Amino acid sequence: MGDRGGAGGSRRRRTGSRPSIQGGSRPAAAEEEVRDVGAGGDAPVRDTDKDGDVDVGSGHWDLRCHRLQDSLFSSDSGFSNYRGILNWCVVMLILSNARLFLENLIKYGILVDPIQVVSLFLKDPYSWPALCLVIVANIFAVAAFQVEKRLAVGALTEQAGLLLHGVNLATILCFPAAVAFLLESITPVGSVLALMVYTILFLKLFSYRDVNLWCRERRAGAKAKAALAGKKANGGAAQRTVSYPDNLTYRDLYYFLFAPTLCYELNFPRSPRIRKRFLLRRGLAGQGGRLFLTQLQVGLIQQWMVPAIQNSMKPFKPSGWGRVGAGGAVPNHLIWLIFFYWLFHSCLNAVAELMQFGDREFYRDWWNSESITYFWQNWNIPVHKWCLRHFYKPMLRRGSSKWAARTGVFLASAFFHEYLVSIPLRMFRLWAFTGMMAQIPLAWIVGRFFRGNYGNAAVWLSLIIGQPVAVLMYVHDYYVLNREAPTAGT
Ligand SMILES: CC(C)(COP(=O)(O)OP(=O)(O)OC[C@H]1O[C@@H](n2cnc3c(N)ncnc32)[C@H](O)[C@@H]1OP(=O)(O)O)[C@@H](O)C(=O)NCCC(=O)NCCS
């Protein structure tokens, strides 16, 4: 498993600088011989030639088998290849979880039920409210497009455009929230999915409006420059790129709406073609993989998390919360990791390949985060890019301090997290909001007191313990409200 060429693999060392402990009778040259330091210390070692044959001709025996050196775990040793230990951690993790898994199976039997999953999405097979909501979302996209079309030709003033976009964007958030809150036939899972689609649409149309506005400002600036120079601005050499307002087509808008990004651009980097082999390999096989991962997540919830939560279904008791945390943190974390791989690597790459979308940086190495700040900069690149481009940098340009801009971004993010949880559950507890806002002081504490590996461990701990606590609080409260209320009256 290990790297044989690493520091641990080098077995022949020169012992030149070491002072002689044999007395002064041997010639100094003999002290400088090359010896096999790994040969052990229980017998004198004879020199071998290049082929490994013992050099019996010289009749010389090496009486030394030690030299000045540090133990491998000492930081002075310079040794860095700990792959074997990493593999050991993985094996131990699997073994300890296998034990938990077996205990769970013996105690509860098999709880995984793929058919039951359907009921999470639908209450009535003839009523698909979440899907209807998603289809209706097209109206808002078309409305934004029509406003942009009119702004491009000057049929609307910028103020009127701003007002119309504002109303459209506000409706995108309020309309599905009202439907999800009031419509009895919609399930919480269906509601979350519909609200996610609307939230993505909101962020995309916000970006669409911003970029088209920047294009108009640039066009106005270019016209003014050309007028000053006394010559007509020309399209220039045949450009293969699209320029404003030629981008205002339904094809362009819908490409953006389906592309795996939240930030609009007139000319997205495109891969030259759809690689059919890649799609066959990654797409079809990947489709199976994605289905498997989806089922795995659902299975983990049904088999592992639901019993852990059911076990602590008592009115608020510290011991109950402790049990939820201890029993639910590990499966919750595993589900979150699988979700990350499933969404950010598998699904987004498949969509990007189909759409020939060239920028595949959907995540960076967040697992190496030594600070909370680094984690938020690297785990969800589409959202981070949007936050930087349409919120953080514009605030900085308007003169806000970095602290105010960062707090503003986290406030917005906290709002959307709460929006996506509270409305589907019809329960306002503000755990998600608080969890997101807590990232600001947490980032300060981790940055102030932890460095390097300790910082990395602190980030992992906050993910393994902090995030599940918020999730499990909602699940716990939802369960208590919806399962215990009817029985309490009887
Ligand atoms: C708030 C947030 C945007 C801050 O990002 P950050 O990378 O820590 O911010 P920084 O201060 O390092 O600056 C970032 C950028 O702003 C630029 N910048 C800094 N000061 C600037 C100024 N005065 N004017 C213009 N740009 C400026 C930097 O050059 C840098 O640009 P680059 O990205 O092109 O290199 C980030 O933490 C974030 O995305 N948080 C929310 C994440 C979230 O909620 N995700 C939800 C996932 S479910």
Please describe what this structure looks like.
The two termini are 61 Å apart. The chain is globular. It has helices at 28-31, 83-108, 116-121, 129-152, 158-182, 188-229, 250-258, 276-310, 318-354, 372-378, 381-397, 402-425, 431-437, 439-449, 452-489; strands spanning 12-14, 34-36, 45-46, 61-62. The chain is built from 15 helices and 4 strands. Among the domains are: 121-225 and 242-258, no CATH class; 280-359; 363-489, no CATH class. The chain has a two-stranded antiparallel ribbon. A two-stranded antiparallel ribbon has the order 3-4. The protein has 490 residues and is mainly α. Coenzyme A binds next to helix 10, helix 11 and helix 12.
